[in-house]
Amino acid sequence: MKEHILVVDDESAIRSLLQTYFAKNGYEVTVAATAEEALRLTNEMPLNIVVLDVLLGDKDGLEVLASLKKAHPKLPVIIMTGIGFDEELLQEAIARGAAGYVSKTLPLDQLLMEVHRTLNYR
Amino acid sequence: MLSPSAQTGQRIFPADPQLRERDQRLESLKAVAGKMGHDFNNLLVPILGYMTLIRDEVPPESPAAQYAAAMENAARTGESYLESVLLAMRPHRLFSPKPLDFAALIQTQLELWTRELSPSAGVTVTQQISPCAIWGDERQWVRAIQQLLSNARYALAMGGALQVTLAPENLTGQKLQDLGLRSEKVFTLRISDSGFGMPKAISDRALEPFFTTRAHVRASGLGLTIAHSITQLHGGQIDLESCEDAGTTITIWLPSEQPAFRTPGISGRHSSPEKIAGRILFVEPDPLIREVLRSSLQWTAMEIHIANTGEEGLKLFKQWPANWSLIVSELQLPGMSGPEFLREAEAHQPGVKCILLSAASAMPEQSREKLSPIVLKKPFTLRAFHQVVRQNLSLPT
Fold first, then answer.
1. pTM score
2. Which among A43, A83, A87 has the least Cβ separation from residue B38?
3. What is the per-residue pLDDT across B168-199, written as a single tens digit (0 to 9) for each?
4. For residue B269, which residues of chain A lie inside 8 Å, CB to CB?
5. Is the Cβ of B303 closer than 8 Å to some Cβ of chain A?
Protein backbone atom coordinates (compact mmCIF):
# COMPACT_ATOMS: atom_id res chain seq x y z
CA MET A 1 0.00 0.00 0.00
CA LYS A 2 1.24 3.47 -0.88
CA GLU A 3 2.36 5.72 1.93
CA HIS A 4 0.20 8.79 2.25
CA ILE A 5 1.71 12.30 2.42
CA LEU A 6 -0.14 15.47 3.29
CA VAL A 7 1.53 18.54 1.74
CA VAL A 8 0.57 21.83 3.39
CA ASP A 9 1.57 25.00 1.55
CA ASP A 10 -0.33 28.17 0.75
CA GLU A 11 1.37 28.58 -2.66
CA SER A 12 -0.64 26.66 -5.23
CA ALA A 13 2.37 26.26 -7.57
CA ILE A 14 4.35 24.60 -4.79
CA ARG A 15 1.43 22.39 -3.78
CA SER A 16 1.00 21.10 -7.31
CA LEU A 17 4.75 20.66 -7.77
CA LEU A 18 5.09 18.57 -4.63
CA GLN A 19 1.93 16.65 -5.40
CA THR A 20 3.29 15.74 -8.85
CA TYR A 21 6.75 14.94 -7.53
CA PHE A 22 5.71 12.74 -4.62
CA ALA A 23 3.07 10.96 -6.73
CA LYS A 24 5.73 10.28 -9.36
CA ASN A 25 7.86 8.75 -6.63
CA GLY A 26 5.17 6.34 -5.52
CA TYR A 27 3.31 8.18 -2.78
CA GLU A 28 -0.34 8.92 -2.33
CA VAL A 29 -0.55 12.69 -1.93
CA THR A 30 -3.17 14.98 -0.47
CA VAL A 31 -2.67 18.73 -0.38
CA ALA A 32 -3.92 21.47 1.91
CA ALA A 33 -3.67 25.22 1.40
CA THR A 34 -4.44 26.37 4.93
CA ALA A 35 -3.77 25.39 8.50
CA GLU A 36 -7.45 24.84 9.02
CA GLU A 37 -7.69 22.48 6.06
CA ALA A 38 -4.58 20.61 7.21
CA LEU A 39 -5.97 20.06 10.71
CA ARG A 40 -9.28 18.90 9.28
CA LEU A 41 -7.62 16.47 6.84
CA THR A 42 -5.43 14.90 9.51
CA ASN A 43 -8.61 14.09 11.42
CA GLU A 44 -10.38 12.71 8.38
CA MET A 45 -7.87 10.39 6.72
CA PRO A 46 -5.05 8.04 7.61
CA LEU A 47 -1.72 9.71 6.87
CA ASN A 48 1.88 8.55 7.16
CA ILE A 49 3.61 11.93 7.10
CA VAL A 50 2.96 15.67 6.78
CA VAL A 51 5.19 18.12 4.89
CA LEU A 52 4.33 21.52 6.29
CA ASP A 53 5.28 25.00 5.12
CA VAL A 54 6.49 27.11 8.03
CA LEU A 55 4.89 30.28 6.70
CA LEU A 56 1.24 29.76 5.97
CA GLY A 57 -1.10 32.56 5.05
CA ASP A 58 -3.55 31.92 7.83
CA LYS A 59 -1.27 30.81 10.63
CA ASP A 60 2.34 30.42 11.72
CA GLY A 61 3.33 26.92 10.58
CA LEU A 62 4.99 26.26 13.94
CA GLU A 63 1.66 26.76 15.67
CA VAL A 64 0.08 24.36 13.22
CA LEU A 65 2.88 21.90 13.95
CA ALA A 66 2.07 22.09 17.66
CA SER A 67 -1.63 21.53 17.01
CA LEU A 68 -0.92 18.60 14.69
CA LYS A 69 1.42 16.95 17.16
CA LYS A 70 -1.07 17.45 19.96
CA ALA A 71 -3.85 15.80 18.00
CA HIS A 72 -1.64 13.12 16.37
CA PRO A 73 1.53 12.62 18.43
CA LYS A 74 2.79 9.74 16.25
CA LEU A 75 2.29 11.46 12.89
CA PRO A 76 5.71 12.69 11.67
CA VAL A 77 5.81 16.26 10.40
CA ILE A 78 8.60 17.69 8.24
CA ILE A 79 8.87 21.46 8.30
CA MET A 80 9.60 23.30 5.05
CA THR A 81 10.83 26.83 4.71
CA GLY A 82 11.42 29.05 1.71
CA ILE A 83 14.51 30.88 2.83
CA GLY A 84 16.83 28.82 4.92
CA PHE A 85 16.53 27.85 8.51
CA ASP A 86 17.85 29.78 11.46
CA GLU A 87 18.89 27.93 14.57
CA GLU A 88 16.18 29.47 16.66
CA LEU A 89 13.47 28.38 14.27
CA LEU A 90 14.98 24.91 14.06
CA GLN A 91 15.07 24.56 17.84
CA GLU A 92 11.51 25.78 18.09
CA ALA A 93 10.40 23.32 15.40
CA ILE A 94 12.13 20.43 17.15
CA ALA A 95 10.70 21.48 20.51
CA ARG A 96 7.26 21.38 18.96
CA GLY A 97 7.81 17.88 17.63
CA ALA A 98 9.10 18.29 14.05
CA ALA A 99 10.62 15.07 12.70
CA GLY A 100 12.80 16.95 10.23
CA TYR A 101 13.20 20.11 8.24
CA VAL A 102 14.12 21.11 4.71
CA SER A 103 14.52 24.30 2.78
CA LYS A 104 12.20 24.54 -0.22
CA THR A 105 15.08 25.87 -2.26
CA LEU A 106 16.98 22.60 -1.92
CA PRO A 107 16.77 20.17 -4.84
CA LEU A 108 13.61 18.08 -4.70
CA ASP A 109 15.47 14.82 -4.25
CA GLN A 110 16.74 16.08 -0.89
CA LEU A 111 13.17 16.62 0.25
CA LEU A 112 12.37 13.12 -0.93
CA MET A 113 15.35 11.75 1.00
CA GLU A 114 14.17 13.54 4.13
CA VAL A 115 10.73 11.96 3.72
CA HIS A 116 12.31 8.51 3.23
CA ARG A 117 14.54 9.02 6.25
CA THR A 118 11.67 10.10 8.45
CA LEU A 119 9.39 7.27 7.37
CA ASN A 120 12.15 4.70 7.87
CA TYR A 121 12.93 5.88 11.40
CA ARG A 122 9.36 5.95 12.69
CA MET B 1 22.97 26.99 19.10
CA LEU B 2 21.62 30.06 20.77
CA SER B 3 23.14 31.38 23.96
CA PRO B 4 20.98 30.96 27.04
CA SER B 5 20.74 34.71 27.26
CA ALA B 6 19.93 35.24 23.61
CA GLN B 7 16.55 36.81 23.30
CA THR B 8 14.73 39.37 21.31
CA GLY B 9 16.16 42.78 22.01
CA GLN B 10 14.11 45.90 21.84
CA ARG B 11 15.43 47.97 18.97
CA ILE B 12 17.34 51.04 20.19
CA PHE B 13 17.78 53.73 17.59
CA PRO B 14 20.88 55.91 17.96
CA ALA B 15 20.50 59.27 19.70
CA ASP B 16 22.80 60.84 17.12
CA PRO B 17 20.32 62.47 14.69
CA GLN B 18 22.21 61.53 11.52
CA LEU B 19 22.75 57.93 12.54
CA ARG B 20 19.17 57.72 13.74
CA GLU B 21 17.77 59.03 10.47
CA ARG B 22 20.05 56.68 8.56
CA ASP B 23 19.06 53.60 10.56
CA GLN B 24 15.36 54.37 10.31
CA ARG B 25 15.63 54.90 6.56
CA LEU B 26 17.62 51.68 6.16
CA GLU B 27 15.10 49.76 8.21
CA SER B 28 12.29 50.85 5.89
CA LEU B 29 14.26 50.09 2.75
CA LYS B 30 15.29 46.69 4.07
CA ALA B 31 11.72 45.84 4.96
CA VAL B 32 10.55 46.52 1.40
CA ALA B 33 13.50 44.81 -0.27
CA GLY B 34 13.31 41.87 2.15
CA LYS B 35 9.66 41.29 1.36
CA MET B 36 10.34 41.37 -2.37
CA GLY B 37 13.34 39.06 -2.01
CA HIS B 38 11.32 36.61 0.02
CA ASP B 39 8.39 36.58 -2.42
CA PHE B 40 10.61 36.20 -5.46
CA ASN B 41 12.52 33.42 -3.78
CA ASN B 42 9.26 31.59 -3.25
CA LEU B 43 8.48 31.98 -6.95
CA LEU B 44 11.76 30.30 -7.83
CA VAL B 45 10.89 27.18 -5.88
CA PRO B 46 8.30 25.78 -8.31
CA ILE B 47 10.41 26.88 -11.31
CA LEU B 48 13.44 24.95 -10.06
CA GLY B 49 11.28 22.05 -8.96
CA TYR B 50 9.63 21.61 -12.34
CA MET B 51 13.04 21.85 -13.99
CA THR B 52 14.00 18.75 -11.99
CA LEU B 53 10.91 16.97 -13.27
CA ILE B 54 11.61 17.99 -16.88
CA ARG B 55 15.21 16.77 -16.58
CA ASP B 56 13.92 13.35 -15.49
CA GLU B 57 11.48 13.16 -18.41
CA VAL B 58 13.53 14.15 -21.45
CA PRO B 59 16.52 12.31 -23.00
CA PRO B 60 19.72 13.88 -21.62
CA GLU B 61 21.18 14.62 -25.07
CA SER B 62 18.03 16.24 -26.47
CA PRO B 63 17.79 19.97 -27.19
CA ALA B 64 14.91 20.13 -24.67
CA ALA B 65 17.27 18.89 -21.94
CA GLN B 66 19.77 21.59 -22.88
CA TYR B 67 17.10 24.30 -22.80
CA ALA B 68 15.95 23.03 -19.42
CA ALA B 69 19.54 23.05 -18.14
CA ALA B 70 20.00 26.65 -19.33
CA MET B 71 16.77 27.69 -17.62
CA GLU B 72 17.82 25.92 -14.44
CA ASN B 73 21.18 27.69 -14.49
CA ALA B 74 19.45 31.05 -14.88
CA ALA B 75 17.09 30.24 -12.00
CA ARG B 76 20.04 29.12 -9.82
CA THR B 77 21.82 32.41 -10.58
CA GLY B 78 18.64 34.22 -9.50
CA GLU B 79 18.52 32.12 -6.36
CA SER B 80 22.11 32.96 -5.49
CA TYR B 81 21.40 36.66 -6.01
CA LEU B 82 18.35 36.45 -3.77
CA GLU B 83 20.46 34.77 -1.10
CA SER B 84 22.60 37.91 -1.01
CA VAL B 85 19.51 40.10 -0.96
CA LEU B 86 18.05 38.16 1.94
CA LEU B 87 21.34 38.14 3.81
CA ALA B 88 21.35 41.95 3.50
CA MET B 89 17.70 42.44 4.42
CA ARG B 90 16.85 39.56 6.72
CA PRO B 91 20.10 38.16 8.14
CA HIS B 92 18.26 36.71 11.12
CA ARG B 93 16.77 34.05 8.85
CA LEU B 94 20.09 32.22 8.69
CA PHE B 95 21.63 33.06 12.01
CA SER B 96 23.74 30.57 13.97
CA PRO B 97 25.69 32.43 16.65
CA LYS B 98 28.28 30.70 18.78
CA PRO B 99 31.51 31.63 20.57
CA LEU B 100 33.72 33.14 17.88
CA ASP B 101 37.38 34.18 17.77
CA PHE B 102 36.71 37.43 15.96
CA ALA B 103 40.38 38.49 15.99
CA ALA B 104 41.43 35.27 14.24
CA LEU B 105 38.65 35.69 11.70
CA ILE B 106 39.79 39.23 10.85
CA GLN B 107 43.41 38.11 10.59
CA THR B 108 42.55 35.23 8.28
CA GLN B 109 40.49 37.41 5.98
CA LEU B 110 43.18 40.05 5.94
CA GLU B 111 45.84 37.48 5.05
CA LEU B 112 43.70 36.18 2.20
CA TRP B 113 43.15 39.73 0.97
CA THR B 114 46.86 40.56 1.16
CA ARG B 115 47.80 37.37 -0.65
CA GLU B 116 45.69 38.47 -3.59
CA LEU B 117 47.61 41.75 -3.96
CA SER B 118 50.09 41.83 -6.79
CA PRO B 119 53.57 43.16 -5.91
CA SER B 120 52.92 46.12 -8.19
CA ALA B 121 49.65 47.08 -6.46
CA GLY B 122 51.39 49.72 -4.36
CA VAL B 123 49.30 48.84 -1.33
CA THR B 124 50.71 48.66 2.19
CA VAL B 125 48.90 46.92 4.99
CA THR B 126 49.22 47.58 8.71
CA GLN B 127 47.26 45.87 11.40
CA GLN B 128 46.88 46.03 15.13
CA ILE B 129 44.55 43.31 16.28
CA SER B 130 43.89 42.57 19.95
CA PRO B 131 42.41 39.28 21.15
CA CYS B 132 38.68 39.43 20.72
CA ALA B 133 36.10 36.76 21.41
CA ILE B 134 32.48 37.48 20.62
CA TRP B 135 29.26 35.58 20.35
CA GLY B 136 28.60 35.60 16.64
CA ASP B 137 27.81 33.89 13.39
CA GLU B 138 31.10 33.01 11.72
CA ARG B 139 29.70 32.56 8.22
CA GLN B 140 28.02 35.96 8.35
CA TRP B 141 31.10 37.74 9.65
CA VAL B 142 33.32 36.20 6.98
CA ARG B 143 30.90 37.56 4.40
CA ALA B 144 30.72 41.02 6.01
CA ILE B 145 34.50 41.40 6.36
CA GLN B 146 35.07 40.17 2.81
CA GLN B 147 32.63 42.82 1.57
CA LEU B 148 34.41 45.58 3.48
CA LEU B 149 37.86 44.47 2.31
CA SER B 150 36.61 44.17 -1.24
CA ASN B 151 35.43 47.79 -1.12
CA ALA B 152 38.81 48.84 0.25
CA ARG B 153 40.57 47.01 -2.58
CA TYR B 154 38.55 49.00 -5.11
CA ALA B 155 39.29 52.27 -3.33
CA LEU B 156 43.00 51.39 -3.34
CA ALA B 157 43.10 50.63 -7.06
CA MET B 158 45.78 53.32 -7.49
CA GLY B 159 47.68 52.18 -4.40
CA GLY B 160 47.76 53.46 -0.86
CA ALA B 161 47.51 52.15 2.67
CA LEU B 162 45.11 49.85 4.43
CA GLN B 163 45.00 49.96 8.19
CA VAL B 164 43.01 47.51 10.29
CA THR B 165 42.67 47.81 14.05
CA LEU B 166 40.63 45.82 16.52
CA ALA B 167 40.68 46.76 20.18
CA PRO B 168 38.50 46.73 23.29
CA GLU B 169 36.98 50.08 24.20
CA ASN B 170 34.85 51.51 26.98
CA LEU B 171 32.22 53.88 25.67
CA THR B 172 30.91 56.76 27.73
CA GLY B 173 27.20 57.21 28.35
CA GLN B 174 26.61 59.82 25.68
CA LYS B 175 28.60 57.99 23.03
CA LEU B 176 26.68 54.84 23.91
CA GLN B 177 23.38 56.59 23.37
CA ASP B 178 24.57 58.30 20.21
CA LEU B 179 25.40 54.94 18.70
CA GLY B 180 22.30 53.22 20.05
CA LEU B 181 24.31 50.54 21.87
CA ARG B 182 23.48 48.75 25.09
CA SER B 183 26.89 47.63 26.27
CA GLU B 184 29.59 50.05 27.43
CA LYS B 185 32.24 47.43 26.81
CA VAL B 186 32.74 46.99 23.12
CA PHE B 187 35.27 45.80 20.61
CA THR B 188 35.98 48.43 17.99
CA LEU B 189 37.03 47.35 14.52
CA ARG B 190 38.34 50.01 12.15
CA ILE B 191 39.13 49.39 8.52
CA SER B 192 40.69 52.47 6.96
CA ASP B 193 41.90 52.93 3.44
CA SER B 194 43.70 55.93 2.00
CA GLY B 195 41.96 55.47 -1.33
CA PHE B 196 39.95 57.91 -3.37
CA GLY B 197 37.11 58.19 -0.86
CA MET B 198 33.61 59.36 -1.60
CA PRO B 199 31.89 62.73 -1.82
CA LYS B 200 29.30 63.27 0.91
CA ALA B 201 26.35 62.76 -1.44
CA ILE B 202 27.64 59.24 -2.10
CA SER B 203 28.82 58.33 1.40
CA ASP B 204 25.45 59.38 2.87
CA ARG B 205 23.77 56.73 0.78
CA ALA B 206 26.52 54.12 0.76
CA LEU B 207 24.74 51.74 3.16
CA GLU B 208 21.48 51.77 1.25
CA PRO B 209 20.48 48.52 -0.40
CA PHE B 210 21.30 48.37 -4.12
CA PHE B 211 23.11 51.70 -4.04
CA THR B 212 26.29 51.42 -6.08
CA THR B 213 28.57 53.61 -8.12
CA ARG B 214 29.84 50.52 -9.91
CA ALA B 215 26.73 49.41 -11.76
CA HIS B 216 28.83 49.15 -14.94
CA VAL B 217 30.68 46.18 -13.46
CA ARG B 218 27.39 44.74 -12.19
CA ALA B 219 28.11 45.41 -8.54
CA SER B 220 25.00 44.54 -6.55
CA GLY B 221 25.20 47.45 -4.11
CA LEU B 222 24.60 45.06 -1.23
CA GLY B 223 28.05 44.86 0.40
CA LEU B 224 27.69 47.66 2.93
CA THR B 225 24.05 46.82 3.55
CA ILE B 226 25.11 43.29 4.43
CA ALA B 227 27.79 44.65 6.82
CA HIS B 228 25.22 47.00 8.42
CA SER B 229 22.61 44.26 8.87
CA ILE B 230 25.05 41.73 10.28
CA THR B 231 26.54 44.27 12.68
CA GLN B 232 23.12 45.28 13.94
CA LEU B 233 21.97 41.68 14.24
CA HIS B 234 24.93 41.15 16.57
CA GLY B 235 23.86 44.08 18.73
CA GLY B 236 26.48 46.43 17.27
CA GLN B 237 26.70 49.60 15.23
CA ILE B 238 28.54 50.60 12.09
CA ASP B 239 29.60 53.99 10.83
CA LEU B 240 31.31 55.18 7.70
CA GLU B 241 33.48 58.27 7.33
CA SER B 242 34.77 59.21 3.96
CA CYS B 243 36.56 62.13 2.43
CA GLU B 244 37.20 62.51 -1.26
CA ASP B 245 40.86 61.82 -2.15
CA ALA B 246 41.65 61.09 1.51
CA GLY B 247 40.03 57.71 2.05
CA THR B 248 37.33 55.88 3.91
CA THR B 249 37.08 54.47 7.43
CA ILE B 250 34.52 51.91 8.43
CA THR B 251 34.07 51.54 12.18
CA ILE B 252 32.20 48.67 13.75
CA TRP B 253 31.39 48.55 17.46
CA LEU B 254 30.44 45.14 18.80
CA PRO B 255 29.34 44.40 22.35
CA SER B 256 31.95 42.36 24.17
CA GLU B 257 29.24 40.74 26.26
CA GLN B 258 26.63 38.47 24.76
CA PRO B 259 24.07 40.78 23.22
CA ALA B 260 20.35 40.40 23.31
CA PHE B 261 20.10 39.51 19.64
CA ARG B 262 17.70 41.50 17.55
CA THR B 263 15.93 38.73 15.75
CA PRO B 264 12.57 39.90 14.53
CA GLY B 265 11.48 36.40 13.57
CA ILE B 266 8.51 35.38 11.50
CA SER B 267 4.86 36.23 11.66
CA GLY B 268 5.15 37.87 15.03
CA ARG B 269 6.66 34.67 16.38
CA HIS B 270 8.38 36.70 19.08
CA SER B 271 5.63 39.14 19.69
CA SER B 272 4.43 37.33 22.81
CA PRO B 273 0.79 36.86 21.92
CA GLU B 274 -1.56 36.82 24.84
CA LYS B 275 -1.79 33.22 25.91
CA ILE B 276 -5.51 32.83 25.61
CA ALA B 277 -6.07 29.18 24.99
CA GLY B 278 -9.30 27.93 23.53
CA ARG B 279 -11.20 27.28 20.35
CA ILE B 280 -13.26 29.78 18.43
CA LEU B 281 -15.65 29.16 15.54
CA PHE B 282 -16.45 31.77 12.90
CA VAL B 283 -19.54 31.16 10.80
CA GLU B 284 -19.32 33.80 8.16
CA PRO B 285 -19.96 33.46 4.42
CA ASP B 286 -18.06 36.62 3.48
CA PRO B 287 -14.37 35.74 2.97
CA LEU B 288 -13.29 39.35 3.49
CA ILE B 289 -14.95 39.61 6.90
CA ARG B 290 -13.51 36.20 7.84
CA GLU B 291 -10.03 37.31 6.88
CA VAL B 292 -10.21 40.61 8.76
CA LEU B 293 -11.68 39.16 11.93
CA ARG B 294 -9.31 36.23 11.95
CA SER B 295 -6.22 38.33 11.45
CA SER B 296 -7.45 40.75 14.10
CA LEU B 297 -7.29 37.87 16.60
CA GLN B 298 -3.62 37.18 15.92
CA TRP B 299 -2.87 38.59 19.38
CA THR B 300 -4.43 35.53 20.96
CA ALA B 301 -3.24 31.96 20.90
CA MET B 302 -6.79 30.88 20.07
CA GLU B 303 -7.37 28.03 17.68
CA ILE B 304 -9.64 29.49 15.01
CA HIS B 305 -12.04 27.42 12.89
CA ILE B 306 -14.05 28.76 9.98
CA ALA B 307 -17.31 27.72 8.37
CA ASN B 308 -19.21 29.25 5.47
CA THR B 309 -22.71 28.18 6.49
CA GLY B 310 -24.63 27.22 9.61
CA GLU B 311 -24.78 23.61 8.46
CA GLU B 312 -21.02 23.48 7.92
CA GLY B 313 -20.45 25.25 11.24
CA LEU B 314 -22.60 22.76 13.09
CA LYS B 315 -20.80 19.81 11.54
CA LEU B 316 -17.46 21.29 12.59
CA PHE B 317 -18.80 22.21 16.03
CA LYS B 318 -19.91 18.64 16.72
CA GLN B 319 -16.63 17.14 15.46
CA TRP B 320 -14.81 18.45 18.50
CA PRO B 321 -15.38 17.95 22.23
CA ALA B 322 -17.99 20.31 23.61
CA ASN B 323 -15.55 22.83 25.04
CA TRP B 324 -15.67 25.62 22.48
CA SER B 325 -14.73 28.99 23.93
CA LEU B 326 -16.70 31.18 21.57
CA ILE B 327 -18.85 31.25 18.44
CA VAL B 328 -18.92 34.29 16.18
CA SER B 329 -21.70 33.97 13.63
CA GLU B 330 -23.32 36.08 11.00
CA LEU B 331 -27.04 36.61 11.65
CA GLN B 332 -28.09 36.14 8.06
CA LEU B 333 -26.63 32.94 6.65
CA PRO B 334 -27.53 31.06 3.51
CA GLY B 335 -29.67 28.05 4.51
CA MET B 336 -29.85 27.66 8.29
CA SER B 337 -29.99 31.14 9.86
CA GLY B 338 -27.53 32.41 12.44
CA PRO B 339 -29.97 32.07 15.39
CA GLU B 340 -31.00 28.58 14.23
CA PHE B 341 -27.38 27.54 14.09
CA LEU B 342 -26.76 28.98 17.56
CA ARG B 343 -29.73 27.08 18.99
CA GLU B 344 -28.38 23.79 17.61
CA ALA B 345 -24.93 24.61 18.92
CA GLU B 346 -26.37 25.44 22.34
CA ALA B 347 -28.04 22.03 22.38
CA HIS B 348 -24.64 20.42 21.80
CA GLN B 349 -22.77 22.64 24.28
CA PRO B 350 -25.14 24.34 26.75
CA GLY B 351 -24.05 27.84 27.72
CA VAL B 352 -21.61 28.29 24.85
CA LYS B 353 -20.64 31.96 24.40
CA CYS B 354 -21.85 33.58 21.18
CA ILE B 355 -21.46 36.79 19.25
CA LEU B 356 -23.85 37.54 16.40
CA LEU B 357 -22.77 39.91 13.64
CA SER B 358 -25.77 41.68 12.27
CA ALA B 359 -26.51 44.13 9.52
CA ALA B 360 -30.19 44.05 10.49
CA SER B 361 -31.62 46.33 13.15
CA ALA B 362 -32.91 43.77 15.64
CA MET B 363 -32.48 40.21 16.77
CA PRO B 364 -35.31 37.66 16.56
CA GLU B 365 -36.97 37.44 20.01
CA GLN B 366 -36.60 33.69 20.58
CA SER B 367 -32.83 33.56 20.16
CA ARG B 368 -32.36 36.59 22.39
CA GLU B 369 -34.21 34.79 25.19
CA LYS B 370 -32.52 31.47 24.72
CA LEU B 371 -28.89 32.39 24.20
CA SER B 372 -28.45 36.04 25.03
CA PRO B 373 -25.74 36.44 22.44
CA ILE B 374 -24.07 39.79 22.12
CA VAL B 375 -25.11 41.38 18.86
CA LEU B 376 -22.55 43.46 17.02
CA LYS B 377 -24.24 45.68 14.49
CA LYS B 378 -22.39 46.56 11.32
CA PRO B 379 -20.57 48.74 10.83
CA PHE B 380 -18.43 48.04 13.91
CA THR B 381 -14.78 48.76 14.69
CA LEU B 382 -12.21 46.07 15.35
CA ARG B 383 -11.73 47.64 18.77
CA ALA B 384 -15.40 47.02 19.51
CA PHE B 385 -15.06 43.47 18.23
CA HIS B 386 -12.07 42.83 20.52
CA GLN B 387 -13.94 44.27 23.49
CA VAL B 388 -16.84 41.93 22.89
CA VAL B 389 -14.49 38.97 22.47
CA ARG B 390 -12.79 39.88 25.73
CA GLN B 391 -16.12 40.21 27.51
CA ASN B 392 -17.16 36.80 26.29
CA LEU B 393 -13.88 35.25 27.33
CA SER B 394 -14.08 37.02 30.70
CA LEU B 395 -10.92 39.00 30.07
CA PRO B 396 -10.29 42.58 31.19
CA THR B 397 -11.46 44.91 28.42
1. 0.66
2. A83
3. 999 988 888 899 988 889 999 999 999 989 99
4. 60, 62, 92
5. yes
